[in-house]
Specification:
Radius of gyration: 25 Å
Mean pLDDT: 94
Low-confidence stretches: none
Distance between the termini: 29 Å
Bound molecules: 2-deoxy-2-amino glucitol-6-phosphate
Oligomer: single chain
Amino acid sequence: MCGIVGYIGEEQAAPFLLNGLSKLEYRGYDSAGVAVYDNELHVVKSKGRLSVLDGILQGGKALPGTVGIGHTRWATHGAPSDVNSHPQVSDGGKFAVVHNGIIENYLELKNHLIRRGVEFVSDTDTEVVAQLLEYYYRNDVLDAVQKVIRRVEGSYALGIICADCPEKIFAVRKDSPLIVGAGQGENFIASDIPAILSKTRDIYRLQDKEIAVLERDNIAFFNEEREPIEKQLERVEWDVDAAEKGGFEHFMMKEICEQPEALRKTISPRIKENKVVLDDISLTAEQLRDVSRVFIVACGTSYHVGVVAKYAFEKLLKIPLEVDVASEFRYRDPILDEHTLVIIISQSGETADTLAALRMAKKSGARVLSIVNVVGSTIANESDDVLYTWAGPEIAVASTKAYSTQLAVIYLIVLYMAQELGVLSDKERKEYLDDLQRLPDLAESCLADKEKIQYFASRYFNAGDMYFIGRNVDYAASLEASLKLKEISYIHSEAYTGGELKHGPISLIEDGTLVIAICTYDRLFDKMMSNVKEVKARGAVVLGITTHDREEAFRQEGDFRFCIPKITDFMLPSLSILPLQLFAYYCASMKGCDIDKPRNLAKSVTVE
Ligand code: AGP
């Protein structure tokens, strides 16, 4: 996510802004900038690390002024560059804006303003906010802010300063966090608490569409109707380290819990009037009809997304789809030609094997569509089309919210292709889209009962081996669940298809062996119950992941169960993985492992 900091007081703003932004670096970013008022608005911003900006500003000394806003940018719209960095400034130079979030209708608003002669300089969605503020401004900034938040759709945390009103900072949010810090003769805004802890522990948490107006000795709050509102002051007791993780002990748990919100950010901008809208790709219906086969190529967790995708593609589109790990794909001779679509999946966008596979595919004439989290990464830049997951930076080595949002993008692609190829009736498409739009809330419900998983982990975190079994999409989920467990808890774990047990692996089952049976795919539930009986007969302890309607049936056979809501079959892994991410986390935590930085692993494997 982007980082926002603002200062108004008696001291120089720039040094504080730089220090505050440094406390938000953990959030991940690709550029940084500040705007400070000193007789006029001065904006200094650059692509790259905060140290680049710090050097230009000589630690802040080069930019005098006691009112300012700063920003670290995690690119969503517009690759990392100086001009796309924030603050974004309006055409007439009156407004400087920093933003965290996604303005979903920015293209429509941008075209509206261009038709009225406004000149844009960046590729960002944020610049639309700055331009709109100046467009609506009639010597009343609060009025302009009100008008802007009525027009923009999407998520935003905004810090705003106006050259005509330099004794104030304006702040407003919707769906992206923003806090106001209260000091003595100075006040602050920030995306997150670490940025201002050096100055104050007294904060106000802005709620959606609440507007804050900060002066040196006063903070006023208004609702979107411009009615003054009273807010509760909160005293922060966290230390800085805990604050960086939003109060969570580890980034991994923070990111597990961010999944519902990340899914909303991935899905919401891409479903309009009951249709999938993928503005970001140029793949036409004609090109889609020309596709004779599809490959999905990735590594690790991203590969496991491809295994789920296979079920979705072949069920809905009847297009043959092959899923391969990049390190194999790049060294075998896959049959590729101009009628092949290769979908590359990568959180980091820098994985060496995956990048090599992409280059091989392009050389063969195949069309490459990539699903990436890091905007402007090498894989994104070298693909014919890229769909960003917009999950925000994933800091923990073990991928969680990237997996979930990658799956969501796969569902969007499959439904988009089905829509463009006309293989779904309107009723069928609506049912799928309704389920996809329910997914974030259903994910929230699955994460609500952490204690149950924590209790189960406390019983089995010392196990030497654990086995995950499933069939169809449940097998795909078991691959990811097994990887999560082994990579952070170092417990040996394997995933098998239920039907394969009798062909060898069942010899591993003995008294007390822990088996986790994922049985959410209803059509094969009875087959999975047979597998549960098989392993129970050999002494296994079985934890089931199943749907609520099958809880009673599972209770007859298994030892423990965790239930998830029903949803479209190929979307089930998006829910069944959640308790198993938590299970891996709690096992690793109880074993005292380094959860965010597991041994031998890197967040981005940029070497072969
Ligand atoms: C997942 O938890 C691992 N950290 C790892 O398997 C990862 O998914 C793999 O290295 C691929 O990374 P990428 O998605 O950035 O390409």
